[in-house]
Amino acid sequence: MEQRLKSRLKRTSVKVWLLLIYVVAALVWWFISLERQNKEMYIYQQNHLNTIIIKEKQPVLYATEFRKIYETYRRTTIKYASEGIVFLGLIILGAVLVFRSMRKQIMVQEQQQNFMMAVTHELKTPIAVSKLNLETILKHQLDEQRMRKLILASLDETKRLDFLTNNILISAQIENKGYEVNKEELDFSALLMDRIKEFKNRFLERTINSEVDEGIDLQGDSLLLQILINNLIENALKYSEKNEAITVGLHRNTDYVKLFVSDQGIGIPEEERQKIYSQFYRIGNEATRKKKGTGLGLYLCAKIAQGHNADILMTNNQPKGSTFVVKFID
Question: Is residue 119, in this structure, part of any structural domain at all?
């Protein structure tokens, strides 16, 4: 995808430059033609002046008329040059804006194509696993323990599918301003512990540490806050090794409630940190591109935080990895 994007941007750049060169060349030719006409008119008026006024007999009158002719020639030249400079500036500005717009459009198209491929893969996997498990149950006489294991696996894949579809639907509704936030007083501590328990049951081999203060209440939309927590924990698990623990915490400070998720993964480069909250954006790092994802998780986190009067920021974890902090202002 990255090579294809570079190729499309290169072709676009060549087209814009060729068009800009052609327009500038036409503008220069226009200026030369007008200046040539202005020069010819100046020479014609000077010759005409020489025929009607004899310089030696009427030097004062001749000098006055000659000065008028020269001033007209000079003002006309300045006018053409000024108009040319203004037009050139507008042309360059327009070319830059057009190039930026085309570049942005190309990048959005590439991100959307990548998103569609990722979503297709993410949707097919849980559907295929659930289908296989159900077919196995139907075709074979399984003992209760084996059947229960397959049902739980199918249920786990269904939850994964529900998580993905929620991300897509909520993202579309938020983008189109079609989602109504239903804020209510809720026990944020209990909500977070419920999410942590869910992930521990799903990822039995992973270590998820919790540092959650009890009894922290919050005005918020329960569904959106669950999506926020899910995405932060999902990312932490996704971008760190299986033998590395992640930590989820919730504390109340004087002026705000702080939710944080820390991992010991590969981290995020400094230059990428302002881009990670963009829709469909995925870090251009080969180590991260190999991971599954749609590019919606952190975009949703930023939008949900914004809707709850909260700030989201990312810092380096020690000795390695990332920490995402969401501060809910009271």
Answer: no
